[in-house]
Write a structure and sequence with these properties.
- The chain has 326 residues and is α/β, with parallel strands linked by helices.
- The protein has a domain of 84 residues.
- It contains 13 helices and twelve strands.
- The strands form two sheets. An eight-stranded mixed sheet has the order 6-7-8-3-9-10-12-11, with helices on both faces. Strands 2-1-4-5 form a four-stranded antiparallel sheet, covered by helices on one side.
- Helix 4 crosses helix 5.
- The longest helix is centred in the middle third of the chain and has 18 residues.
- The protein binds adenosine-5'-triphosphate (ATP) and magnesium ion (MG).
């Protein structure tokens, strides 16, 4: 099986005045062509840093090691010039916080056309035509007129659609969408996810969807990867994550989804405590201080990511004796 993206042993550390922040630790994963991988985990778990490291968009304080093979080339060893040909062309990215990602002084159409002009040998008019076409594809009504409007004339949901149009304007093979719907209300969230899905079908996109919201990925992801404190803690096909949960952190995340997925009448649970400091991670399992299943061994021994079923990995010392967590 060849993967579109194959990441091995990714580590990202930040140099800070307080010491090294271990933001991403030994993260390995792969994404097959056409699939949707969801990366979930609470705030600070390393989701955005993983994506930004792959795009080589982290600042100089970041120390990155590992391998990231995309369409057969290593993203970490290519020159910046080669990387520029990949960014925005072969890999499209929707950044967290779309409100700041669109420039208020240029029209939405100009901003989408600009992305096309950087990567294609075409005229301004052709780029604008492409912008209108893309705006239509992501469901922006009346795109011929709206192409000349400024971001402030768009609603939040429409701006997010414009961001998607920009990310896919050069027909990338991979779209990395970092919290694409967080700032939106629930109905608009569903519409935006539907746009991503329909674009995925029409141009054959592979999607890496980053979100803290497991409810959002329930109907969308093929595979789910759960991160905690910079580590991958569980990964499997979507249904296995939901119905054959093996990692206590994933279980805790699932129990905190305020949605129709829960059984009516049951109390919504929160995860007590906070993630550990990434400056000097404690020994043992990083989730142990918050884990209802933790034993003395969990305080001392760092668990490895182990196979617990078909294409199913979990990082928990008690995986075999706890079995499926309900
Ligand atoms: N430039 C930086 N310098 C130091 N630490 C950083 C830097 N950028 C990120 N971090 C740290 O790396 C860790 C992972 O951050 P990241 O942005 O990947 O979290 P996230 O999972 O995307 O969270 P959220 O759901 O809030 O977006 C955090 O502890 C964060 O504080
Ligand atoms: Mg983030």
């Amino acid at each position: 099986m060849t993967f579109l993206l194959d990441v091995k042993g990714l580590n990202v550390r930040f140099r800070t005045e307080f010491g090294l922040v271990h933001a991403v630790n030994e993260v390995s994963f792969s994404v097959s062509k056409g699939e949707t991988l969801a990366v979930v985990g609470e705030s600070g778990s390393g989701k955005s840093v993983t994506a930004l490291a792959l795009m080589r968009l982290l600042d100089r304080t970041a120390l990155i090691d590992g391998e990231a093979s995309f369409e057969g080339v290593n993203l970490f060893t290519m020159s910046e010039k080669e990387m520029q040909k990949i960014r925005g062309a072969r890999i499209g990215m929707i950044f967290q916080d779309p409100m700041t990602a669109l420039n208020p002084v240029f029209t939405v159409g100009d901003q989408i056309a600009e992305v096309v002009l950087i990567h294609r040998d075409c005229t301004k008019q052709e780029a604008k035509t492409r912008a209108i076409e893309m705006m239509g594809l992501v469901g922006i009504p009346d795109s011929r007129r709206r192409v000349d409007q400024y971001p402030h004339e768009f609603s939040g949901g429409m701006r997010q659609r414009a961001m998607i149009a920009m990310a896919i304007a050069n027909s990338p093979s991979l779209l990395i969408a970092d919290e694409p719907t967080t700032a939106l209300d629930v109905t608009v969230q569903a519409q935006v996810m539907e746009v991503i899905r329909s674009v995925q079908e029409s141009i054959g996109l592979t999607v890496m969807l980053i979100t803290h919201d497991l409810g959002l990925v329930a109907g969308f992801a093929d595979r789910i990867q759960v991160m905690y404190a910079g580590q991958l803690v569980e990964t499997a096909e979507r249904d296995r994550i939901f119905y054959e949960t093996r990692n206590p952190y994933t279980r805790a995340l699932l129990d905190s989804i305020p949605s129709q997925l829960g059984v009516p009448g049951t109390e919504l649970k929160t995860i007590g405590g906070n993630p550990p400091s990434l400056l000097s991670p404690p020994p043992g399992c990083l989730f142990q201080p918050r884990c209802v299943h933790a034993t003395e061994d969990c305080r001392m021994t760092r668990p490895e990511l182990k196979s617990v079923g078909q294409n199913h990995l979990s990082r928990c010392l008690r995986s075999s004796d706890l079995g499926v967590l309900r």
